[in-house]
Amino acid sequence: MTQDDRVKLEASWKAVLADEFKQPYMRNLADFLREEKQQGKVIFPPGAQIFNALNLTPLPQVKVVILGQDPYHGPGQAHGLSFSVPEGVAIPPSLLNMYKELQRDLNIPIAEHGCLQSWAEQGVLLLNTTLTVEQAKAGSHAKTGWQRFTDRVIDCVNEQCENVVFLLWGAHARSKGERIDGTRHLVLTSAHPSPLSAYRGFIGNGHFSQCNKFLQRTGQTPIDWKLPKAAVVQTGLDL
Predict the structure, then answer these.
(1) Model confidence pLDDT, tens digit, residues 164-178
(2) Which of 5, 19, 70, 238 is catalytic?
(3) Would residue 70 show up in a list of annotated catalytic residues for this protein?
(4) What is the phi-psi region of residue 95: left when phi exceeds 0, alpha when psi lies from -120 to 50, beta otherwise?
(5) pLDDT tens for residues 123-153?
(6) C-alpha closest to that of 223 among 79, 99, 120
């Protein structure tokens, strides 16, 4: 994948990732995505939203990282932010469990929509470790090169930011913890919020309040986890 006019990337990320886009694996990844589309396969999220997490949260503003794995693979769900869906799309089960923990931990009412953009705009990097997926095929792009690219993103945050809170939920996210300097950042780990594991350690982890206490202790503004009201009507369609 080359860094040209087709790749719209926020300036601070563009500066630190420019060399990465020149690597052969990224060119191979771009070729793969083009070939998949030429074969008529539907790829999520839309091309303009692949780097949404980076574009909404510039590197110097990163205060929290919430690490996901794969984009959602249903129509209309993925928009480049981990765990998030656009307004008007039914709230996915994992995100609903995150809302339940927010309610338990900080007494924040369960949101009426699933768009987490306001978190991203406050400095929460909502990063999936794989940035694209084929429709209805979870994990289909996991071995195409994205993991190496997002490892580099994590490295940039680890190296260039101070006092970041990393929320690593589930085995896949926890495996990235070895890249993070725990003496400079706060790393919080637990079970994943999916229905299969949420009640085996995610619900009750207190991560949202621990995160804000750490941010305040290190002189940073805490995250307002309460989402703004939806601008559109919820469809109720479970995509």
Answers:
(1) 999 999 999 999 999
(2) 70
(3) yes
(4) alpha
(5) 999 999 999 999 999 999 999 999 999 999 9
(6) 120
